[in-house]
Amino acid sequence: MKQDLLTFADWTPEDMAQLLELAQTIKQSPGRYSNVLAGKSIVALFEKPSLRTRVSFDIGINKLGGHMVYLDSQAGKLAGREDAVDVAANLACWADGIVARVFSHSTLQQFADAAHVPVINALCDTYHPCQALADYLTLYEAYGKVKGLTLAYIGDGNNVTHSLLIVGALLGCHQIVITPPNHEVDPTIFEKAQQIARATGADIKQSHDVSAAEGADVIYADTWLSMGDDTPLTAIKDTFMPYQVNEALMQQTGAKYVMHCQPAHRDLEITGSLIDSDCALLMAQAENRMHGQNAILTHLLGA
Ligand code: CP
Ligand code: NVA
């Protein structure tokens, strides 16, 4: 039975901990994994732009001995030419796995149903699981543990927030999600994270007040406007500016580190000076994208 990676929501805490451990092992001993994808080809299909995800999958697959075929939004445009199910079934004729960044989570579900090879979510409107794995790997490296830490996410409740909630809950990380009113996370995903958290001992909360981040170990920021959201910045800037992650907020909360999945918008959701400061983990997160994804690929497709 092939396994897909669309959300992590159906994983057990034990499976999640093992995957995090595998990512560390692959990072520390890459030579041991240089042939796990030997002779295998992965199609990476992107409906939206990408720097980190595209390059880290391409180079990462190469390091595992495999080969990646990139299809961009022009070549791989799904809408209009043929149905998503037919695209996926065709790709599975040649490819051993499909990595896909799509607008709608339902497209991924169609891919997963139609393709007899593993499908990996490289970001959709609702989740960004590869990002969350890299982020918790980064926190593990910074603290030597994830369980019992407190992560405060501040900004728009979005795909990145949802995956941080799910993966963090599985790993026992306390989380507080702080958003402006009307920008909260999906209530069903929040409840799912709380349900997982009851088993792992994590405390998962929401607030509209940035002071709720006081005492957090790490503050996490993401763009106020995700790809595919055409709202003009001017329409939301005043609402979000009090949620900017800056030096004053770091001091107020006492957090040691700041994280951001990138692309970052300097002096909007996070100050440029904070990105450039010693407390920023952004480049460690970016580097760990590849190690986390290589663990996923090894788990789903490894020989
Ligand atoms: N963090 C992230 O997914 O970056 P890209 O959009 O550049 O892939
Ligand atoms: N929430 C952002 C993440 C980018 C990596 C977006 O979806 O655009």
Topology, pairings included?
Elements: H1 13-28, E1 41-46, H2 52-63, E2 67-71, H3 84-94, E3 97-101, H4 105-114, E4 119-121, H5 129-143, E5 150-154, H6 159-171, E6 174-178, H7 187-200, E7 204-207, E8 218-221, H8 233-240, H9 247-253, E9 257-260, H10 272-275, H11 282-301
Helix pairs in contact: 1-6, 1-11, 2-11, 3-4, 5-6, 5-11, 6-7
Residues 123, 158-160, 222-223, 226-227, 261 line the site of norvaline.
Question: Which key phrases capture this entry?
Answer:
43% helix, binds phosphoric acid mono(formamide)ester, alpha/beta, single chain, globular, 4-stranded parallel beta sheet, 5-stranded parallel beta sheet, 303 residues, Rossmann fold, binds norvaline, 2 domains
- Any idea of the CATH class of the largest domain? Alpha Beta
Report the sheet with the most strands, covering strand number, pairing sense and barrel closure: 5 strands, parallel
Number of domains: 2
The ligands found in this model are: phosphoric acid mono(formamide)ester, norvaline
What is the strand tally?
9
Mean pLDDT: 96
Helix content: 40-55%
Which strand order do you get reading across the main beta sheet? 7-6-5-8-9
What is the CATH third-level topology name of the largest domain?
Rossmann fold
Coarse shape:
globular
| CATH architecture annotation of the largest domain | 3-Layer(aba) Sandwich
Distance between the termini: 14 Å
Order of helices and strands: HEHEHEHEHEHEHEEHHEHH
Low-pLDDT segments, ≥5 res:
none
Classified in CATH, the superfamily of the largest domain is: Aspartate/ornithine carbamoyltransferase
Percent of sequence in beta strands: 5-15%
Radius of gyration: 19 Å
SS-based structural class?
alpha/beta
Per DSSP, the total helix count is 11
